[in-house]
Design a protein that fits this description.
Radius of gyration: 24 Å
Distance between the termini: 41 Å
Order of helices and strands: EHEHEEHHHHEHHEHEHEHEEEEEEE
Helix content: 40-55%
Structural class: alpha/beta
Number of helices: 11
CATH superfamily of the largest domain: P-loop containing nucleotide triphosphate hydrolases
Strand order of the largest sheet: 3-4-2-5-1-6-7-8
Largest sheet: 8 strands, mixed
Strand content: 15-25%
CATH architecture of the largest domain: 3-Layer(aba) Sandwich
Number of strands: 15
Length: 383
């Protein structure tokens, strides 16, 4: 089963692209589910159909849902919330302030991602298409399963043992209720699900798709997202460059945009030369409903199967040794004499014969202090 996750800077059209992709997959025979995990849902608007937390059939072979983050938040840690409410409330009276304190920022969106795991296990779908939150939020959420896993695995056993030893006397002394033993089981169960979600999103069946537009600021964020996603072990296997002004529209008032747009498209092509880049011109009308989405998908994919895995290996990865960072770039069968490397501000410019790539450095302020090439891999040292 395939999982396709679409993300990008807010406003680049990732929801429309995700919806069009899902509809195209369903039309070609895949049992498809498209999910929105973005708290600011617009998937239903793109499909011109109202959606709920549960999958609704919107076309033959296609179901869609907008995940309710508050509902998933309550479901994922219901008993833990109830316990914290007992600790936070005075005289057993709940107030609005205590309820708001129990809605921790980001956790609802994280638990929404767990629905991907549930639907993947159901066996009902061949492809799940996910309309993720904007890039920055998506990066934060994708790191959570691993980080929470380490935290819980270290802290929970110790806390559980202390509660067993000190529980009742401490409760009588402080008037603070101690958590029941099953509460720890709930948290460990949640941890296990988050671990499984992390494994699923890192599997060869799941890939990220980046949606961008040719504007300089948007392209810069897209390139940084690619570097960081790769650093955290996620595979990006396609890029969609959306809303490219056609030549006929770049006259008169919009004439100054021509050079800027050409430069933006060129940077996208250089930065993602190893991936398929689907270029979408700015449409002459607003994309709305199934008819519009089908036309957009036809322009985007043609005869290409969107479910295909376009890239598996990591073209680059980042390792750390204290303050030293190393950027590993795979260049199989390259001739060392034909390689050229330069730093251009926050970019690394890599040239090999007549081909060149522009790579965003993973951290601001890092400088190239060394480089070596061996066994088909270029290792650039940053300090």
């Amino acid at each position: 089963m395939r999982i396709l996750l679409y993300t990008g800077k807010g406003g680049v059209g990732k929801t429309t692209v995700a919806a069009a992709t899902a509809l195209h997959l369903a039309d070609t025979g895949y049992r498809t589910l498209v999910l929105s995990t973005d708290p600011a849902h617009s998937l239903g608007d793109a499909l011109s159909q109202p959606l709920t937390n549960d999958p609704t059939e919107v076309a033959p072979g296609l179901r869609a849902a907008e995940i309710d983050t508050l509902a998933e938040n309550d479901l994922a840690w219901e008993r833990l919330r109830a316990y914290l409410a007992r600790v936070l409330t005075t005289n057993r009276v709940k107030d609005l302030a205590s309820e708001e304190m129990l809605t921790l920022p980001g956790l609802g969106e994280l638990f929404a991602l767990l629905r991907i795991l549930d639907h993947a296990r159901s066996g009902e779908y061949d492809v799940i298409v996910v309309d993720c939150a904007p890039t920055g939020e998506t990066l934060s959420l994708l790191k959570y399963p691993e980080r929470l896993g380490k935290l819980f695995a270290t802290a929970l056993p110790t806390k559980r043992a202390l509660v067993k030893v000190l529980g009742r006397p401490f409760e009588k002394l402080t008037k603070v209720p101690m958590p029941e033993d099953r509460l720890f089981d709930d948290v460990m169960g949640l941890l296990d699900r988050l671990t499984q979600l992390g494994d699923l999103l890192h599997s060869e069946d799941a890939t990220m798709r980046l949606v961008t537009t040719p504007e300089r600021i948007v392209v810069a964020e897209t390139r940084r997202a690619h570097t960081w996603l790769t650093m955290y072990g996620f595979v990006v296997d396609a890029v969609v460059c959306n809303r490219i002004y056609p030549d006929g529209a770049l006259g008169g008032y919009f004439a100054p945009w021509a050079a800027n747009q050409a430069a933006g498209v060129r940077i996208v092509e250089e930065s993602f030369a190893h991936l398929p880049i689907h270029k979408l011109p700015l449409q002459s009308h607003e994309i709305e409903g199934l008819t519009g989405l089908r036309a957009l998908a036809a322009a985007m994919y043609g005869d290409v199967d969107p479910a295909a895995v376009n890239y598996r290996d990591q073209v680059l990865k980042v390792t750390r040794d204290g303050d030293v960072m190393r950027l590993h770039i795979k260049l199989p069968e390259a001739d060392k004499a034909d390689l050229d490397l330069q730093q251009d501000g926050r970019d690394l410019l890599l040239a090999y014969r007549n081909e060149h790539r522009r790579i965003a450095l993973p951290e601001v302020g890092k400088e190239v202090v060394g480089a070596r090439y061996s066994d088909g891999e270029l290792v650039v040292t940053l300090g």
